[in-house]
Input
Amino acid sequence: RILVFSKTNGFRHESIADGKLALIELGKKNGFVVDTTEDAAAFHEKNLKRYRAVVFLNTTRDVLNPIQQTDFKRFIEAGGGFVGLHAAADTEYEWPWYGKLVGAYFNGHQPGTAEAKINMVKQFGDSLPNEFSATDEWYNYKTINPDINVVYNLDESTYAGGTNGADHPIAWYHEFEGGRAFYTGLGHTKEAYHNVVFLKLVLSGIEYAIGDKALDYDNVKSERMPEENRFAKVVLDFNL
Output
């Protein structure tokens, strides 16, 4: 079972609805159940224990509070998986741990959408082509985690607006603090979620994130954060 999370506090992609439906269909055809939510309250340890992976589907800006962040971090440490699609890199800029998990942060893009060529760097999953072309909104990246394994690079010579140069990653994966993470910058348009190659790439990412072992909270190192209603405030003075 995986959880698809698509809360936004910034730009909202019109493709989110298509993305949810596409992921539900992928689950039906490939043996996993998909739950969707835009409620950050789902990031509670009792609920997260029901899932093997969490997908951030075009999330933007700050979407989790500190307590939810801690429970999500513990989920990854327990062996949970993460999949980030497109604007997942435009999320939680003030939470450096998340930036390392997703693998990079958004750093601008070319105006509108454009067709570009994508080249394989490293084999990943089954039946993915060595190269293909796609039309999307192409992200540039900053704070790139050096530990990521790049699956595809974007060929900046085939479109205008790229700033990452010859090594412009657009899909990658890595192990991270006990869990597994996959990200792709594809997924801006509605059409992407009807594209066979893109869906194969996403499926490979989900299967990698799910892994082959159950969650094990005995491996968790981070302590849970007490909920705010467990604190009492005592005023020592005022109007100083």
The helical segments are 16-30, 45-48, 66-77, 96-102, 196-210. The chain is about 20% helix and 25% strand.
